[in-house]
Write a structure and sequence with these properties.
The protein is an alpha+beta fold. α8 (187-207) packs across α9 (233-252). It starts with a helix and ends in a 12-residue tail after the last strand. The chain is 41% helix and 32% strand. The chain has helices at residues 3-13, 33-39, 48-51, 57-66, 108-145, 148-157, 178-184, 187-207, 233-252, 287-296, 308-313; strands at 17-22, 28-31, 69-78, 81-94, 97-106, 163-175, 210-216, 219-224, 261-275, 281-285, 303-307, 318-327, 333-341.
Length: 353
């Protein structure tokens, strides 16, 4: 057997599609079995473009004349399976006649792997975005439950150290006749109204350096002077209290549901910490909170009540009208003041427990 015959047998046996073409008309001069298996058997007059219609023969001829090489890919179906083949054309000489050697390699698996990698990358990217979004939602939720500095401590160390803050000022607020409103209004209306009002209170409180601690139904508690100390904490809660009342008055002028609140403010010490393990919440408790809650019980509708200490701290900008000594829950008796901004007109006062 001649060397040429051996070479031809080898070319026919390998798993790579091989074909020889004349460069003048791109007619097939040779092809192996693998090529025929993939693309069909070329007849005597078959040209390259009969098999690969998208191939530009002029570009191929130009590439082979300049650099002697041209590479491309083609995708087709073999027995309902999609195959991708890399086609590599190289110029050669056959007895002085110019020919092109076409080598076709099955890169289907490589393409499948590339597609899998792309899909995996997209999935990882999508999951990363979802995790980031969930993290932001959790962070937003936690920031709604605790001050940012407390949240940062919790995020870093996993715990929040209980701290004594002294002095701070506390504002407590509830709505008059809330029980009757709950019984007569649609629950969705109640929740929507509270969301609207509490959101406005939050904005007002933030404006004056107050940190909303929690809401329980119609009870709203905000504090100034913690977690960062604020020398004007008393003035902050007093200003917030007056703005809360003004906001409700304006809102009642344009909304069908009428709200009236009563506010108690006090100053003193509180302890701030995360309470609970599984259903934890940041909470404050201590003398100032207890006192503000009890003073609130002596405030009339749409008015602010304060004890003597905080009333004295803000007397430069607020009128304090004595309501006389009142007995707070627990048996202690103290003088309670109704607080009004200097520009506000006095209103009819009625005590309501």
């Amino acid at each position: 057997m001649s060397i040429e015959a051996i070479n031809e047998q080898l070319l026919r046996a390998i798993g790579v599609g091989v074909a020889l073409l004349d460069l003048k008309e791109f007619k097939f001069r040779f092809h192996n079995d693998t090529f025929a298996e993939w693309f069909g058997e070329p007849d005597a007059d078959a040209r390259l473009t009969d098999f690969f219609s998208s191939l530009d023969p002029e570009a191929l001829r130009e590439a082979l004349s300049d650099g002697g090489r041209f590479a491309t890919e083609t995708t087709f179906k073999v027995k309902r399976r999609t195959m991708t083949v890399a086609m590599d054309f190289n110029r050669a000489l056959d007895g002085g006649e110019r020919i092109a050697v076409l080598v076709c390699q099955n890169i289907t698996r490589i393409k499948e792997l590339e597609s899998m990698i792309d899909s995996y990358s997209m999935m990882v990217e999508r999951n990363t975005r979802e995790l980031k979004r969930e993290k932001e939602q959790v962070e937003k939720l936690l920031l709604n439950m605790m001050p940012r500095s407390v949240y940062e401590e919790y995020k870093t160390f996993g715990v929040v150290t209980p701290r004594l803050y002294d002095p701070v000022s506390v504002l407590t607020l509830d709505f008059c006749g809330f029980g009757d409103m709950v019984a007569t209004l649609d629950p969705g209306v109640i929740v929507s109204e509270l969301n609207d009002i509490y959101s406005a209170f939050d904005r007002i409180g933030e404006q004056f350096g107050c940190e909303r601690i929690k809401t329980i139904g119609d009870a709203y508690i905000t504090v100034s002077g913690m977690p960062d100390a604020a020398p004007d904490h008393a003035m902050s809660v007093a200003n917030a209290a007056i703005r809360f009342l003004r906001y409700l008055k304006q809102r009642n002028g344009s909304h069908p549901v009428q709200w009236q609140c009563r506010i108690g403010i006090s100053t003193g010490a509180v302890i701030g910490s995360v309470v609970g393990v599984q259903k934890y919440i940041y909470d404050v408790f201590g003398p100032a909170v207890t006192r503000a809650l009890r003073i609130r019980g002596h405030a009339g509708p749409m008015s602010v009540a304060a004890d003597g200490e905080i009333a004295q701290l803000v007397e430069a900008k607020f009128n304090r009208i004595s309501m006389g000594p009142r007995e707070l829950v627990g048996g202690t008796e103290t003088e309670i003041f109704r607080m009004e901004a200097v520009a506000d007109q006095p209103q009819t006062y009625g005590s309501q427990s």
